[in-house]
Write a structure and sequence with these properties.
Four copies of one chain form a homotetramer.
Chain A: H1 2-5, E1 15-21, E2 27-33, E3 41-50, H2 53-61, E4 82-90, E5 102-105, E6 108-109, H3 115-118, E7 140-141, E8 153-157, E9 161-163, H4 170-173, H5 176-190, E10 198-201, H6 205-216, E11 222-226, H7 229-237, E12 242-245, H8 251-258, E13 264-269, H9 276-283, E14 284-292, E15 300-302, H10 304-309, E16 313-316, H11 324-333, E17 343-348, H12 352-361, E18 368-372
Parallel strand pairs in A: 10-11, 10-13, 11-12, 13-14, 14-16, 17-18
Antiparallel strand pairs in A: 1-2, 3-4, 3-8, 3-18, 4-5, 5-9, 6-7
Helix pairs in contact in A: 5-6, 5-11, 8-9
């Protein structure tokens, strides 16, 4: 390793294998040129990539409307954004990382020049998706607006990379961005969480990481709601003090009971259920806060009067802002909780379609499905 | 005045005239004992009181469910919370004000001992409404949970009073709390507003004060939307750079046009219209913020996906927190705008039912109807 | 216990033993009336009280100049502010605690009516010390401006009390306010600390608690500097990743070395050494922050140019604001660290002068000396 | 103008006149290549540039130690950072500005990739000064670490430019960055200033702009201290409610008197006097805040005990962060105050050495000396 560290690149082939989007729901394995890292960029050899719910969305519906150029189908576009790997080539001006470093990637690199980036809100970059040709503002969202990691190599902005400690496995390192999203929600909504109560609604990957992080930050009690006992049991292992199966109990009533009628200080909403915001607002109290990390696809009835009368703030969050992945990584590195609990299945690069099928259909109660390269 | 200032009280009668709630929609003029100010309290002779939309709500439906003891009907309860007057008696330990001082009142005095009060969120006091008997936590909300100002005298916590400068009329001084509510919304949502764009939706009293304050704070442009040209014209006088009559134009399209496609940084929602939040979310941009100062009474369909995908924060606000009335008063005292524009009608104390009728039915396009005592 | 909980008081004698200040350095044991709790107040039977460095200061020099009425000598004044005990009597309107509850006390109860209290800065109450006679604003600072706990009983504002969990010893519970002060410094200066680096300078009780809390919050690395190896060893047990004995090494140089030349994000200064601020400023980097929790008694030379050129913020903190004691208690209750390590000696109530001597002269390397009643 | 706007560049010569640093205190007029704007950069034809106190410092002592490569003497380096001009050429990906636009420049463009930039603190960029060769991180500080505006043309990062409204003169537009620095200090220290009291110590350009902006933000009262009556009179014109000549009156005593013994909420320190911080701390009150925008060159005795005991925060600020120049420009554009009052002298490009002499020796009571091109 010593030798490689002094170099600007490892040997890198000219072309690589990559999965690309054809028609909706169609992935095709192809051969692409290995991309070149520009200034402030790094070429990473992908070692592992996890499947995210958003990957499934893009595969079915394309990207959010905010991206110029329309749907990504049949454009040779590669998705995949929860990944880690090894630094193999450095762009101009890069010395924050060395060849051979193991790194994990957050999704967004803001343009660094718009109003939002200048105030630190880089995941809300005003130049979102403008990263080609004349409109090149330098924004990147790996696997959303720039090629992602269902491929052997991927380019990243130096901004998006975090060192992976030696003792952390490749698989665990792919979970940092999921944890980072939960951490961002906690940061924005709650800040200092120690000694405060929180309910996490929805035990998906973000919700489960939310439980683990809230516990690490000193929240008490941490309450998790969901529909499946297996997931709730996982939540307990990750630090939930109480779990509520909403099939058996009224979650609002139960949360109030667990908090002696006062409600929780914060609710991290990760279920996307139709009535989730209304219930969340009733689980908290006057002056309480709710973070929406998931959402129903159609407009749903919301009791706005309750929000106003109770001075409740609602935070929609997108992604993993405020460098929250770094805080998430710190807790994972310090072994405050075992993130690998949510990693349930592993497949090889060639099996990505199967991996996706497992994630989508929750086969064998799959939570995080990881694709391990090489 | 010199003489009176050294005293602890002016001469005060034992009883006073007061309007009280009978059945819903019924006000009755009666005689009540003049209340005694306790420690940290002040007795104020009411000199003027304005009618607020919330007064009309209480008169019809009673108080929000959060107040113990149920509806306020037939309990000798006096409403009225937008008032000013003259200090006539000081409770123990009070030297912040002197006998004879002219003062205007904000609504809420938090208990000072709960978690919310201790973090400065006194309008979200956890002991809201607990101000009687064994449950006495010292919270007061004038005209909501403790007797208000449709009476000759009213007791206030020293916390809620602000000095009225000599050159400000009684009528103008009653508007400070309305302006304070708008200011609170701007504070919570936007903080430093100078140079940022804002849309205010709904040209009621709070919306119009919101326009004036946003302008005073340096916002640009300030855009006002509404349905009536007369109100919009008033908004222009108070500082709106652009007004949009939503009967003639699509407000979302127009706001985007006025901001070269970028949307405004902030929306202060004061209309309570069913689609107001969805429109507000589309008037702003990624990372934008919306403050709800009004609300529809029934749940309405809300596009939560748009909030999450665009990282939009939504702030429900109740009342006039963070001492925002003091900031509002500062701008009014500095004559940054003419708040009296929204004061349209004046009635005598005995005419309160007529005053309420004017406010409710918007007779002669009434906005702020003020009752002037004596 | 069940029975006692339903009562408003346990049996309480009319008089109690209390130590009072005579001339400087002179404590006298006397008999005093047991005080009556007023509205929002609670009478606590003191079960344990720790000696704080500030007690020693008051004993020698009197109170800070901010307290009306001059020095506290020969006025029958009782000091002692790091204490815990049992609730024995409730003032009017108190139901937050029940008779028989074990509680620990923070020092300050703000007046709840001044500008600072209204914005949540109750330890900076503008009515500091005004709690008697006509000037009674309701401020309390236990053992500073109102009688403290070198006595059998003490009155507290309900604001200042925190429940002590069953499994926590009396001795440990007296340490909560020390930890709360360190936590306040971390809150004000750093907020979200996870993944950030910090140096704590000075391994006194506050510094050592600062190390433990910073570690609990996820800071990395946590560096502690000091002059005595025994204290530094204690710091290691409490979570310091690195310790620096400034007698052997240049702490600035060493901190830079440990952070690969970048400096730490934050410095919590707890030594009060003459050059501590200058060194702290050089241990951090452009945009860094320093919190002063200790101070030299005389003015010292400070390189202000360095602060300005490097955009460094310096936070003087007094006491344990922002309800930080609650966060500190949460971590202690969750057994994130063993606070009892800093508790070195125990004495009986009658031995308070000896306890003070041990604390002052650091006899047998005393850190926290606790007085256990009964 | 219409025609030029559609182009990517106006005609630009190959070389330009520029003043460069020789030995300390020596400026030499020379011919340099006109620089090329890279991605995210813009070439500006300099139309006017003001002399700043920092220019005089660099001329005498070189740059702060933070810049790699040592002193800037005899390296063909061009200083000058308070400037405005006309856009003549656009780098790749730039469409925020058009050819022919009038713009004014703030100093700092952060690297956009370090920790500080990512949290919005771009003036505290961790890669300060690293903008050449292999270490190229993209940071720029015009006239400090990259060539400035004592030249016919200058390159800027798109981040640093602000549109100048048609009705604003070239001279006034050069003052925006000075106002932006004062605004940054107010932002960091005070946030919402309306209704709060402030003292500005030192009526130099930043202090005077601080007075004007504090007034615009609604502060009351605004108190200015200084040693020269002519400057204080200027402060009055810009909005000071009270001025104090420290040669005639004790400023601490007077500030306390003007605030009825309570002290001001905030102090913006712009004098750099030896005792300024101690006096500022005594002008404010418990919980108060002081911003240091100037500094003495040598360490000075500071009463840290006073800062700690009174919970005072001290903010060293460097430059014009948080996009404060945009807020300053908003107020100037809205004509809230007449910034041109501080512009006292104008010289031609060839006369820069004379302009500097006027600024340095304050000839004819010079405040802002502006160099007008062409």
């Amino acid at each position: 390793m010593q030798d490689t560290k002094s170099k600007r690149s490892l040997e890198v082939p000219k072309t690589m294998k990559a999965w690309v989007l054809d028609d909706p729901e169609q992935l095709r394995l192809t051969e692409k040129p290995v991309p070149e890292p520009g200034p402030a960029e790094i070429l990473v050899r992908v070692d592992a990539v996890a499947i995210c719910g958003t990957d499934l969305e893009i595969l079915s519906y394309g990207l959010p409307a905010i991206v110029e150029g329309g749907p990504p189908f049949n454009k040779n576009f590669t998705i995949g954004h929860e990944y880690m790997g090894t630094v193999v080539k450095l762009g101009r001006g890069v010395d924050e990382f060395a060849i051979g470093d193991r790194v994990t990637a957050e999704i967004h690199a803001g343009c660094g020049r718009c109003e939002r980036c200048r105030e630190g809100m880089y995941t809300s970059c005003s130049n979102y998706g403008l990263n080609y040709g004349d409109k090149n503002k330098g924004h990147r969202a790996n696997g959303f607006t720039t090629d992602g990691a269902f491929a052997e190599y991927a380019v990243n902005n130096v901004n998006t990379l975090i060192h992976v400690p030696d003792e952390m496995s490749d698989e665990e390192a792919t979970l940092v961005v999921t944890a980072g999203t939960a951490m961002y929600g906690l940061d924005v909504m709650a800040g200092l969480l120690a000694g405060k109560s929180i309910a996490v609604t929805g035990p998906g990957p973000i919700g489960l990481m939310g439980v683990a992080l809230a516990k690490s930050l000193g929240a008490q009690p941490v309450i998790l709601t969901g529909t499946r006992d297996s997931r709730l049991a996982m939540g307990k292992k990750l630090g939930a003090d109480h779990v509520i199966n909403v099939r058996n109990e009224d979650p609002v009533k139960k949360v109030l009971e667990l908090t002696r009628g006062r409600g929780v200080h914060y609710v991290l909403e990760c279920s996307g259920a139709s009535n989730a915001l209304n219930e969340a607002a009733k689980m908290t109290n006057r002056g309480g806060r709710v973070c929406l990390a998931a959402f129903p696809h159609e407009p749903v009835p919301v009791d706005l009067a309750h929000l106003v009368r109770n001075n409740i703030y609602v935070y929609g969050i997108r992604g993993e802002g405020r460098s929250a992945t770094h805080r998430a990584m710190a807790f994972m590195q310090q072994k405050r909780f075992d993130a690998t609990i949510i990693h349930t299945h592993t497949f090889a690069f060639e099996e990505i379609p199967t991996a996706i099928k497992y994630a989508k259909e929750r086969i064998e109660d799959a939570i995080k499905v990881v694709v391990k390269m090489g």
